[in-house]
Amino acid sequence: MSFTIAIDGPAAAGKGTISKAVAAEFGFAHLDTGLLYRAVGAKVLAGTEAVQAAQNLQSEDFGDADLRTTKVAEAASKVAAIPAVRSALLDFQIEFAARDGGAVLDGRDIGTVICPNADVKLFVTASAEVRADRRFKELTAKGDQTDFQKVLAAVIARDERDAARDVAPMVAAADAITLDTSDMSIENAVAQAISAIRAKYIPS
Ligand code: CDP
Hints:
Elements: E1 4-8, H1 15-26, E2 29-32, H2 34-45, H3 50-55, H4 70-79, H5 83-88, H6 90-97, E3 103-107, H7 110-114, E4 120-125, H8 128-141, H9 148-164, E5 177-180, H10 186-198
Parallel strand pairs: 1-3, 1-4, 2-3, 4-5
Helix pairs in contact: 1-10, 2-4, 4-9, 8-9
Bound molecules: cytidine-5'-diphosphate.
The site of cytidine-5'-diphosphate has 18 residues, from helix 1, helix 2, helix 4 and helix 9.
């Protein structure tokens, strides 16, 4: 049985936390597709050409702690606008989505391009300030020296680039359920996501 859940949304909206919780709740596999673009971005920062990097990703490329930095996020969003980078990453994501036992994928174009026929599509969002605040807390907890205004500016710049690109721009699929988590605790956001999925998912 395959059952695909597509979770899209802007930077630091809580997609990762919600996706992991949903995958654990239903026993599905989870793919954070942002990590693919972050791994390519990190390779580009280290000197590799973007398309070459995307065509040659290895599992060990995902273990680097630096992948979560603001610098790598920015590089990721630049390489993500290159059509040949996106097409190099396409088959892996489509195959993952179709795997037996159910899959949750989170990203920007899951409900629109990767899995247009996903069983459930969520678009998770929140105000830029709330998202920047969450990302700021995440970064400072890891010991990163940064300030809130910088994080806010980086989040806004990345969202603008992701929404404006020609290929697979960040946009809610017409049939996605939007979850605005600005005034929601993460527990509440997870509970709402789970109940939206439960309404469609009948375990065999
Ligand atoms: O964790 P956060 O929401 O900040 O970002 P991410 O999901 O790790 O994605 C990093 C970047 O990769 C995004 O800003 C996008 O430019 C790109 N991305 C994309 O283009 N398509 C996806 N399906 C996932 C990420």
